[in-house]
């Protein structure tokens, strides 16, 4: 079960305890800004140690010491394709791996979806993970939507194209997902890379990674809500 806590742990660990590292000593103001927050990094690449993961790690390294980080590699979870049973009379039964993933999702204040750009959107692994959110919304007593509200959704993606506009579809999906759940959206950290490790040569992306989690994450709105100037009623 590829779940870890602590960005320096091995990806194959079941569950390890620890916190994120801070290579540059943070100020007291930095620490206060992250007080009470915890980050879940969801890796959805089809490649181990791929460019998207490298970029996500670069951003995570800037989090102050003491901020909990949990890393989940979706390829390491025996998670089948989502089967919609929301309207079945037998109810919704969560598998062991699904339950671990659900708990990790709901315990985090900040969720970082790290997916390479595949056909101008997120990977199949990442989409499957979001599909499971549909099921969790229907679990009696779980209050998934209410408990996710107020959290922050972030995206990290590496892509072969140098034109960042081609990732607009992925960014829109994440923004609208956050808007539906009344979450904040911190945007998408974009990097260029196709060959293994190539994203390290994208100086602009690596620089942006240093301050990515420091940027403002406003309440996400659907496009029609932005046009109207206010969010719709939940």
Protein traits:
single chain; 234 residues; alpha/beta; Rossmann fold; six-stranded mixed sheet; globular
Q: What can you tell me about this protein's structure?
A:
It is globular, with a radius of gyration of 17 Å. It is α/β, with parallel strands linked by helices and 234 residues long. 32% of the residues lie in helices and 15% in strands. The protein starts with a strand and ends in a 6-residue tail after the last helix. The chain has a single domain (3-10, 39-84, 94-228), classed as Flavodoxin domain (Rossmann fold, 3-Layer(aba) Sandwich).
* CATH architecture title: 3-Layer(aba) Sandwich
The helicity comes to 25-40%
CA radius of gyration? 17 Å
User: What is the CATH class name?
Assistant: Alpha Beta
Q: Biggest β-sheet, characterized?
A: 6 strands, mixed
- Element order, helices and strands? EHEHEHEHHEHEHH
Overall SS class: alpha/beta
Q: What is the count of helical runs?
A: 8
> How much strand content do the residues show?
5-15%
What's the number of structural domains?
1
Poorly predicted runs are: 5-28
Shape: globular
Terminal CA distance: 35 Å
CATH topology, which one? Rossmann fold
Number of DSSP-assigned strands = 6
| Strand order in the sheet with the most strands | 1-3-2-4-5-6
